[in-house]
């Protein structure tokens, strides 16, 4: 594949919302997190719950092998892009002198302009998220949830305001800084998967790990999402739910400090969806990864440390759950 590194890194992100230009020029703040060994993150499977967490009853997550699906044996490793060893960008401290939360949206507005039409997708959005928080973002269709996630993931620009992540003002990043930010800091599960169609499930996951500083084991993560038997299939040979799980495995395997999931269980049946959410919840708890999940399912608000309600481009309310429920105990 001769995809340039920016495209490889973004893994098709530009299909989403159609905008990816940077907001401006400024310095990359420091604190790029380097991990010394992948073993610093525990291997988590859907049935591998911490003892304090009730285990979800085991249910089959891997559909029977599709007899008409063809598979391809991968004999050649994917070529590692040559410029993945970019140095960590130079640190430029924030200029406003304020202490910022791990993630902070500060008066963020976003207007899409199409000819004479202006669509105010976000209007003065403010919220803060702490490191390691498991956050649920809920709201009706068109409320602005994906816009928030796309801006946070460095894939869309904002019209006004500021966005901080881990002490850095990402809303001022230039193109190069955004590429590095997306490559090393963010794992994204897209609402519409955005898998690379001419790569197998395993290759899609492997591709993401090749632009990570501290990736997880590809096969272990594929196994954790219940796709061990399907990993040599191309996306077109997978069901929607299987593709969604490839997308989740791809984001998790990067071992990012910030995992952004846009409707990660939208195509999954009840039990599989629950197991995937449990995987994400366990992973976040054990590894202190900050996870943000967009959903329409209000039952899931009980599992978040924080719940951000979005309505008509505004933050309607923000709730804190002192005792978030385990996903295994939530029914809907
Ligand atoms: N690229 C775009 N160009 C123009 N308008 C857009 C674009 N992307 C989103 N919008 C508009 O911005 C608003 C917010 O969209 P967004 O995708 O954030 O909603 P959402 O809350 O994720 O909805 P859903 O639950 O249906 O995915 C909507 O009115 C949408 O039509
Ligand atoms: Mg959306």
From TrEMBL:
Identify the GO cellular component terms for this protein. membrane protein complex
Q: Coiled coil where? A: none
Where in this protein does the record put region Disordered?
Answer: 1-46
**InterPro entries under this entry?**
AAA+_ATPase (IPR003593), ABC_transporter-like_ATP-bd (IPR003439), ABC_transporter-like_CS (IPR017871), MacB-like_ATP-bd (IPR017911), P-loop_NTPase (IPR027417)
Occurrences of domain ABC transporter (ranges): 103-330
Q: Which GO terms describe its molecular function?
A: ATP binding; ATP hydrolysis activity; transmembrane transporter activity
Claim: Heme is one of the keywords in the record: no
Q: Which domain of life is it from?
A: Bacteria
Query: Which keywords accompany this UniProt record?
Result: ATP-binding, Nucleotide-binding, Transport
List, alphabetically, the Pfam families matched: ABC_tran
Instruction: Enumerate the transmembrane spans.
Output: none
Give the record's family classification. Belongs to the ABC transporter superfamily.
Name of this protein: Macrolide ABC transporter ATP-binding protein
Q: What does the record give as the organism's lineage?
A: Bacteria, Bacillati, Actinomycetota, Actinomycetes, Bifidobacteriales
């Amino acid at each position: 594949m001769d995809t340039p590194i920016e495209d490889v890194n973004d893994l098709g992100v530009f299909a989403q919302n159609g905008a990816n230009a940077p907001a401006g020029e400024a310095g990359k703040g420091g604190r790029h997190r380097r991990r010394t060994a992948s073993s610093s993150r525990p291997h988590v499977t859907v049935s591998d719950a911490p003892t304090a967490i009730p285990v979800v009853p085991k249910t089959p997550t891997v559909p029977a092998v599709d007899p008409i699906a063809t598979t391809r044996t991968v004999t050649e490793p994917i070529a590692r892009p040559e410029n993945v060893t970019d140095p960590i960008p130079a640190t430029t401290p924030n200029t406003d002198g304020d202490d910022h939360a791990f993630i902070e949206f500060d008066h963020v507005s976003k207007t899409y302009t199409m000819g004479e039409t202006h669509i105010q997708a976000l209007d003065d959005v403010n919220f803060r998220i702490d490191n390691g928080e498991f956050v649920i973002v809920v709201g009706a269709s068109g409320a602005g949830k994906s816009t928030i996630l796309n801006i946070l993931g460095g894939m869309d620009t904002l019209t006004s305001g500021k966005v901080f992540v881990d002490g850095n003002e990402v809303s001022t990043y230039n193109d190069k800084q955004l590429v590095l930010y997306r490559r090393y800091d963010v794992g994204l599960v897209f609402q519409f998967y955005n898998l690379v169609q001419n790569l197998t499930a395993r290759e899609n996951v492997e591709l993401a790990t090749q632009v990570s500083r501290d990736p997880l084991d590809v096969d272990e993560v594929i196994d954790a999402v219940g796709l061990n038997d399907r990993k040599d299939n191309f996306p077109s040979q997978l069901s929607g739910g299987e593709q969604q799980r490839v997308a989740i495995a791809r984001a998790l395997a990067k071992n990012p400090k910030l995992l952004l999931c846009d409707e990660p269980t939208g195509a999954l049946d009840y039990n599989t969806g629950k197991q995937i959410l449990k995987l994400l919840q366990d992973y976040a708890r054990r590894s202190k990864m900050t996870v943000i999940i967009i959903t329409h399912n209000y039952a899931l608000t009980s599992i978040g440390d924080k719940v951000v309600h979005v309505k008509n481009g505004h933050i309607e309310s923000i709730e804190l759950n002192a005792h978030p429920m385990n996903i295994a105990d939530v029914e809907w």
